[in-house]
Design brief:
By secondary structure, the chain is an all-alpha fold. The protein contains 8 helices and no strands. Helix 2 runs parallel beside helix 5 and helix 3 packs across helix 5. The radius of gyration is 17 Å and the shape is globular. It starts with a helix and ends with a helix.
Length: 193
C-alpha cells in the first residue's frame, strides 16, 4: 500500500512550484521571515529526496528532473542551514544542528540516486556544496561541540548521520576529505552502541 501512496505523493510534488513563495513573508518580522525560509528549506529538501528516490526506483526521468530543479534552487538559496531562530539562539557557539544534519543527509542521498542523470559539472558543483556544508559538522565536532562526543544524545547520532552520509557520497571523489569524517562517525557511533 505504501508504494502507490508514495508515487501519488511524488506526482503531486511534480505539480508544485520548484521553490514556492512564502505567503505573507513581506508582513513578517525579520525573525519570523527567517524561520519561514528555514522551514521552506527543510520542506524542499524532503521533496528533493523523495523525487530522487522515485527516480531511482522507477527510472522515470521526470522524477529525477524535478529533483534536479529543486537541487538547483536549494543550492542557490541563501537561507542558513542551521535553524537561525531557535537553535542558534540557544546554542550560539554551534554552526550545525539537527536540521543541518538532515539537509546534509537528504542532499547526499539525492545525489546518490541522481548520479545517472546529472552532468559531470553539475555533480561536481553539488558535491562541492555538500562538502562545504558537511565540513561545518566536522569542524563543530572537532572544536568541542557538546554533541560531538555525547554518546547518550540523539543530537550526536543525528549529526553523525548527516556527516556520515555526506562522507559516503564524497568518498569516491574526495577520499582525503571524506576518510577522516568516516573515521570520526565510526568512532562516535561505535561508542553509542
Amino acid at each position: 500500500r505504501w508504494w502507490p501512496q508514495f508515487l501519488a505523493t511524488q506526482e503531486r510534488e511534480l505539480g508544485q512550484p520548484t521553490w514556492p513563495d512564502i505567503p505573507g513573508i513581506g508582513g513578517m518580522t525579520p525573525e519570523a521571515a527567517l524561520g519561514a525560509q528555514h522551514a521552506r528549506l527543510l520542506a524542499q529538501s524532503a521533496r528533493l529526496e523523495g523525487l530522487a528516490c522515485a527516480y531511482a526506483l522507477t527510472g522515470e526521468v521526470r522524477y529525477g528532473e524535478g529533483s534536479q530543479r529543486i537541487l538547483h534552487a536549494l543550492a542557490a538559496d541563501g537561507t542558513p542551514w542551521m535553524d537561525p531562530v531557535v537553535h542558534k539562539a540557544i546554542y550560539p557557539e554551534l554552526n550545525a544542528d539537527l536540521g543541518y544534519a538532515t539537509l546534509c543527509y537528504r542532499v547526499a542521498a539525492a545525489l546518490g540516486w541522481l548520479v545517472p542523470l546529472l552532468p559531470a559539472a553539475e555533480l561536481r558543483r553539488a558535491l562541492a556544496l555538500l562538502a562545504e556544508r558537511a565540513a561545518v559538522i566536522h569542524e563543530d565536532a572537532l572544536r568541542g561541540a557538546w554533541w560531538g562526543d555525547a554518546p547518550n544524545s540523539n543530537w550526536t547520532s543525528h549529526l553523525m548521520h548527516g556527516l556520515g552520509a555526506a562522507a559516503l557520497a564524497l568518498l569516491p571523489s574526495q577520499p582525503g576529505l571524506a576518510r577522516p569524517w568516516v573515521d570520526l562517525v565510526t568512532d562516535r557511533m561505535l561508542r553509542m552502541l
